[in-house]
Amino acid sequence: MIGYVTLGVNDMTRAKAFYGDLLADKGAKVVMDQGRLAFVSAGRGQPMLAICEPYDKNDPVPGNGTMVALTADSKEQVDQLHQKALDLGATCDGPPGQRIPDRFYGAYVRDPDGNKLCFFVFG
């Protein structure tokens, strides 16, 4: 149902490197680059993560309560993505752990621009 989600960033070069490196193991890469706007995806027909410098040229401001949740294949992959994000310059916003017993395992970070991400797996 979701085609893409857009996150505002200050530095396109840094953001493309961050998301390209972070999601490479999931088969994702920058699939379209329009200068101030780029799309990261695992392939045609798959959901995309768009990163952009705001059109109005004002600073991007992460929304309060806004978060993008990215799927993982296992709890181990949640842990790996969380650590990789930290290694790439993200900050921890909630370490990996079981959030809902037997239902939801997740970890949270803020990217270098303050956008909140969740890595999760059901189970």
Describe this structure in words.
The protein is of the alpha/beta class and 123 residues long. The chain has one domain (4-54, 66-122): 2,3-Dihydroxybiphenyl 1,2-Dioxygenase, domain 1, CATH 3.10.180. Helices cover 20% and strands 39% of the residues. It is built from two helices and eight strands. The protein has helices spanning 12-23, 75-87; strands spanning 4-8, 29-33, 37-41, 48-52, 68-71, 91-100, 104-110, 116-122. Strands 1-4-3-2 form a four-stranded mixed sheet, with helices on one face. A four-stranded mixed sheet has the order 5-8-7-6, covered by helices on one side. A hairpin with a 6-residue loop joins β3 and β4. The chain is globular. 26% of the residues are buried.
End-to-end C-alpha gap: 22 Å
Count the DSSP helices: 2
- Architecture (CATH level 2) name: Roll
Total individual domains: 1
Structural class label: alpha/beta
Low-confidence stretches: none
Overall number of strands = 8
What string, H for helix and E for strand, traces the elements in order? EHEEEEHEEE
Strand order of the largest sheet: 1-4-3-2
- In helices, the fraction of residues equals 10-25%
CATH homology group: 2,3-Dihydroxybiphenyl 1,2-Dioxygenase, domain 1
| Envelope shape | globular
User: Per DSSP, what share of the residues sits in E-state strands of 2 or more residues?
Assistant: 35-45%
Largest beta sheet, briefly? Answer: 4 strands, mixed
Average pLDDT score: 95
CATH topology type: 2,3-Dihydroxybiphenyl 1,2-Dioxygenase, domain 1
By CATH reckoning, the class would read: Alpha Beta
Radius of gyration: 14 Å
Organism: Sulfitobacter mediterraneus
Protein name: Putative lactoylglutathione lyase
GO molecular function: lyase activity
Domain VOC: 1-122
